[in-house]
Amino acid sequence: MQITLEGKNALVCGSTDGIGKATAIVLAEMGANITLLSRNEEKLQKTLKELDTSIQGQKHQYIVADFFQSEQVTEAIKEHLTQQTTPFHILINNTGGPPLGPLIEKSSIEIIKYMSLHLTTFHILAQSLIPGMNESGYGRIVNISSNAAKQPLLNMGISNTIRGAISGWAKTLANELGPNITVNNILPGPTDTKELRNIIAGKAEQSGRSIEEVYGVLHSKVPLGRLGSPREIANVVAFIASPLASFVNGTNIVVDGGKTGSL
């Protein structure tokens, strides 16, 4: 089998670092035209130069918007769609995770803030792009979530709460949309990103252990004995976004090296 996304237009969010960036690179390698979306224009410009254009002379571009400001996202995508003559076929919803800590210690303001960062902006973008997907007869909405949606994780109260909400939202949307649009969630486990490295450094400092010791504990919880790479997550995203995954819909796909304790 060969995955090809030639002629497909993909909007990839949170695409200047980690899993989002890896996904943009992989989708471009498959032939897709990529539109990056992030709040840091300097990083967007740098990432744009790393995207493949050799498959079919792909055209890549970017949108500057901050997911913490849902109205800004609404206006930015609205303006972009008025200028773009072809629809988006693929939407990769992705953004940074909430802060660590027990849920009971978090204020309602924090919960609302991060629920808006994830669920509200995901919904805004989906609503904006679905008409074009219907018109083109092809749609893939892929949400980068977390394995916390399957098994809540310690000290990740807000994240656990939000991931469950995203799963319910995505399943509902999958049931409503068909027949040409699929909606699925990718649930990464521990992945070697800048965000995770910062978390590990913080845990090491708080516990008085070395960074190597903290990594060792984390590795021991993964049956494959290591962290995943952003590209390994992106490869699964690419499959789900492709025509080959046409009958995969409304589900959570765990990509965590076996770490999650449930089926």
From TrEMBL:
The alphabetized UniProt keywords are:
Oxidoreductase
- Give the EC number: 1.1.1.100
User: What Gene3D superfamilies does this protein map onto?
Assistant: NAD(P)-binding Rossmann-like Domain
Q: Name one Pfam family in it.
A: adh_short_C2
Family that this chain belongs to:
Belongs to the short-chain dehydrogenases/reductases (SDR) family.
Matching InterPro entries: NAD(P)-bd_dom_sf (IPR036291), SDR (IPR050259), SDR_fam (IPR002347)
Protein name as catalogued: 3-oxoacyl-[acyl-carrier protein] reductase (EC)
* Top-rank taxon, per record: Bacteria
Note whether Zinc occurs among the keywords. Answer: no
Return the PANTHER family for the record. 3-OXOACYL-(ACYL-CARRIER-PROTEIN) REDUCTASE, NADPH-DEPENDENT REDUCTASE BACG
Is Oxidoreductase among the key words of this record? yes
Single GO molecular function: 3-oxoacyl-[acyl-carrier-protein] reductase (NADPH) activity
